[in-house]
Amino acid sequence: MSVQLSDPHPALTPARLSLLWRRLKGDPMGLIGLILVLIVVFCGLFSPWITPFDPFKIIVPDRFQAPSLTHLMGTDNLGRDVFSRVIAGSRIALFVGVSTIAIALAIGLSLGLLAGYGPRWLDNLLLLIFDSIYSFPTVILGLTVVTLLGASVATLMFVVIVIQTPAYARLTRTAALSLKNSEYIQAIESLGASNFRIIAVHILPNVVGPLLIIASMDIPSVVALEAGLTYLGMGIPPPAPSWGRILQEGFGLIRVAPWIVVSGGIPLIITTLGFTFLGESLRDHLDPRLRRVV
Amino acid sequence: MLFYAVQRIGLSILILITSMVMLFTALKLIPGDPATIMLGSRASAQMRTRITEQLGLNDPIIVQLGTFFGRILQGNLGTDMWSQRPVSQIVIENLPYTLVLIGVGLGWAALIGIPLGCYSAIRRNSFIDKFTGVISVGTISIPSFVVAIYIILLFAITLGWLPIIGAGDPGDRGDQMLHLIMPGFALGLGWVGYLSRIVRASMLEVMGENHIRTARAFGLPEFQIVKSYALRIAILPTITLLAIAIGGLLSSAVFVEAIFARPGIGKLIVDAANMRNFPVVQGGVLTTVALFALTMPIADLLVAWLDPRVRATL
Amino acid sequence: MTGDVLDIRGLSLRFDTQQGAVHALRNIDMTVPRGEIVGVVGESGSGKSTLALAVMRLLPGNAVIASGTIAFCGSDLLKLPEDEMRAIRGTRISMVFQDPMTSLNPVRSIGWQMADIQYRDRAASAAQKRAKSLEALQGVGIPDAASQLDRFPFQFSGGMRQRIAIAMSLLQKPELLIADEVTTALDVTLEAQILHLLRELRKNINGSILFISHNLGAIAEICDRVVVLYAGEVVESGPVGEIFNRPRHPYTKALIACDPARIETVTRELPVIAGDVPNLHRIPEACIFAPRCPVAIDRCHTERPADVMAGPSHRARCHLVAGGPA
């Protein structure tokens, strides 16, 4: 990844935002992404009000109904309306996705600044820790932590934060390092600015913007990770209608009630495609220099 | 070249050691009594004492750390709580299945993805290029387990063409290959897109360079230029990026093995994690981490072998 | 075979870009007679390299040949199907490029590249191809050529790489060698060596060379004829002696006057040509040099000049040059 956060980035002024909107309108992939993301966010925000049925309510006589006009995605083995569960699941997905990335960003930013601006030994130590975390494939790291701590929402969030933080920390560190040695910063130092001021006023604004863009592109993978771990029984415990849970229950019933599994996969596809399309489009229009290869 | 190899492997070992220390530390930091966690809250005091002693949990930390590393160096990854078999043996039994799955998945992804990337670079903005671009983003972002479940629904349940469970009859190669089709496909699908994109980006960069223009000035056929001149250079960053992404491949393998109930390290870890069978989880995790840690130096060595400029700086 | 090796008539070329069309070459007339070295001189952006790439038909995708012909030994290159053109590249017309640091493939050995260029010689064995490569390297003065064949480009200096590039281009004994600013990236000593090499080679191979450069000294040293290019037009062309001793076009005169090597009177200032190279999006109905010309008259700003014969095979495109129609 050759992301240069240290290059000066144009600020997000209203003029640029309107230019961005115009460009986005002409980009079909970006538009589709935006629409999909809006659908997911809408469902997540307003789910208690838009679910046609109670996602948790068990109505045994209604079980195993194929999709119909009343039950758009059918019912599962306990008579619960799958469509309502799917919408409720969007709340979980969004909550986990956004909050964990936000926390990971905050921690990563701090650690990265520390590594870049602090003493050399601290930098080396932090790098070693980051690389070691990297050397665990994500799901496997997740499984390990869950084995140790037990499956719960908190554990899941902890896992995601541990996985995401090194990436953000590294990016911040690289930016901090190169900025630290740039003539621009040296000039400011020679004018007597304190380290804190340098970091807060000069380095941070440059770093935050692109970091946000990159972080928002991690939302789909975090959502997928949560769903995956829950699918394996290692994520959010029942009866929370996480999409991974719906998939897990549906897989067991795949021969008798295939609609459950289909319905569980659809929101995941919508979310991952939507955020990815939108993220790519935004990145292309806002700052093509951020183009990671993938 | 030899010194370079030693250097790279040494660095990986250092990272591996740090990971193991972190694993060990995590173990020690968990709240509660490890014995209770493993045996469940209804275990008798007698069983708990026995487990505690068996695992050496009463010894000082340094001793435990030492025994931890000592055992690993000897190839002793502990004992499976349930079957009382050595974990290393269990790992060795399951590892080949995972390696085969990864090989098949990555293999077909490379077979299709690399030429697709080349084609997209040469015929930039053609229909195939744009189509591949959109499909790539799509397949990369859709989680592999969703793909796996959907193709099971389509090919196994609805159409009844392919078997779902397991790796097939051990003696029957054909049956085993049949069992590899869906898992391999699910594993590799995201990678076709990934590979085609990085190859495309690499190739676009290389094809714009002056030496390609020289090759054309000598009347070399375009196919030859792409194959022997451009691809040779473009493949180098591709190899490095692939090595970095192997972690994702191993993660996907966990899901695929679990869904298809295929034997392998992934399924081993998942099943053990569900039963809180920590020695097995630890052994499986260490193996995957070691695998992953080895891919970077192998990739670097491969690049050094292919690129004379790197060799010269060694 | 008699006749000119290269005969370009009325060549006009444009690049279609997002900002509109750039008329890079307009109404180019020039020839390369058999066995001669013809120099093309001009500033950066005058279209010299574009001209070379046009002959080779290696222009980028957005280039459009608006009109004209490029006759090579009688046949129009612009009308050839691509595979026939490809057959000519490297065999009958060869090109050496400007930057030796990037024009050779970095991951293949010299020997490999030179052998691969000979891919059309299906009958030749690997050993024969290697022998031919060896001979070519020795011909350009590479010492210890046998062991150099297995080395890689990054192991050679810029001057050596340029020699290797020249050796590669002469492998198939082309009838025309296009040398596009081959000495621009080299220092003066190396430049002298390469120029000397080119002169020697021309004697031995009996081929023609199209020598592109912005260095008047180099042009004066090895060329038989000179074509002066300004902003995509041939403003003057003729035998080298004529051009340098009796330049007619104001631009040529200014160019020569600006050459530091020719300064005879020491003043405090370096002579320059005032103004900038014109924007090639809109071509005015006027002499293209008029805005910068020190002796321009009203007519120069309103009417395009036609070519005029200022002497035997000496043409100039200027209202102020006396002579018969070209």
Radius of gyration of chain B: 24 Å
Beta strands of chain B, count: 0
Q: What is the averaged pLDDT score of chain B?
A: 83
How many strands, what sense, and barrel or not for the largest sheet of chain A? Answer: none
Total helical segments of chain A: 11
Spans of at least 5 consecutive residues with low confidence of chain A: 1-8
- Largest inter-chain contact set: A-B, 47 and 57 residues
Beta-strand percent range of chain A: under 5%
Q: Low-confidence parts of chain B lasting 5 or more residues at pLDDT below 50? A: none
Molecular shape of chain B: globular
Please report the total strand number of chain A as a whole number.
Answer: 0
- Overall average pLDDT of chain A: 82
Distance between the termini of chain B: 6 Å
List the quaternary state of the chains: heterotrimer
Summarize the structure.
The complex is a heterotrimer of chains A (294), B (314) and C (326). Chain A has 294 residues and is mainly alpha-helical.
Chart the SSEs and their pairings.
The complex is a heterotrimer of chains A (294), B (314) and C (326).
Chain A: H1 14-25, H2 28-50, H3 82-117, H4 120-134, H5 138-149, H6 153-180, H7 183-190, H8 195-216, H9 219-231, H10 243-252, H11 258-286
Chain B: H1 2-29, H2 34-39, H3 45-54, H4 61-73, H5 87-122, H6 127-141, H7 144-158, H8 173-207, H9 210-217, H10 222-260, H11 265-274, H12 278-306, H13 308-313
Helix pairs in contact in B: 1-12, 5-6, 5-8, 5-10, 5-12, 6-8, 7-8, 7-10, 8-10, 10-11, 10-12, 11-12
Chain C: E1 6-17, E2 20-32, E3 37-41, H1 48-56, E4 63-72, E5 75-76, H2 82-88, E6 93-96, H3 110-117, H4 126-139, H5 145-148, H6 158-170, E7 176-180, H7 188-205, E8 208-213, H8 216-222, E9 225-230, E10 233-239, H9 240-245, H10 250-258, H11 298-302, E11 307-311, E12 314-317, E13 324-325
Parallel strand pairs in C: 3-8, 3-9, 6-7, 7-8
Antiparallel strand pairs in C: 1-2, 1-4, 4-5, 9-10, 10-12, 11-12, 11-13
Helix pairs in contact in C: 4-6
